[in-house]
Amino acid sequence: MVVWSIWLDKNRLVFENKAEGAKEVVARAGRILGDYLVCNGLDEMKCNRAKPNTVKWCPPTRGYVKINVDAAVNNDMEFIGIGVVARNEDGTVLAAAARRMFGRFSPHLGECMAVREGVWLAQSRGFSK
């Protein structure tokens, strides 16, 4: 859902020359998840899962670009999802990418592939710091 939200924001930038901030992209992903849970008769109380630790994004040093990556791995699927986001010190999204890679990969290898995509994104956009 986060990757889809990034993809949607990227398309809005490309086709409508409009982009949202990182907070709105993440908030949209949360709303989509909430809608999914409601539509499928699930809610936070019924879901038997651990609450994730709250992690706050820390901006990079002024003049630098911070690139965050993630991989989604499901052993039942024949592919993994990779997401990359590049932001400046204000949290403005400078670039983002999402990709599906076909094959079965361990979570560790999936994360490594996401890092590779992040390096590629930085190089392709000319981010040197």
Give an overview in words.
Helix 1 (2-16) packs across helix 2. By secondary structure, this protein is of the alpha+beta class. The chain has one domain (2-125): Nucleotidyltransferase, domain 5 (2-Layer Sandwich). The chain contains 3 helices and 3 strands; from the N terminus they run H-H-E-E-E-H. The protein has helices at residues 2-16, 22-39, 107-125; strands at residues 66-73, 79-87, 93-102. A hairpin with a 5-residue loop joins strand 2 (79-87) and strand 3. 40% of the residues lie in helices and 21% in strands. Strands 1-2-3 form a 3-stranded antiparallel beta sheet, sandwiched between helices. The model has no long low-confidence stretch (mean pLDDT 82).
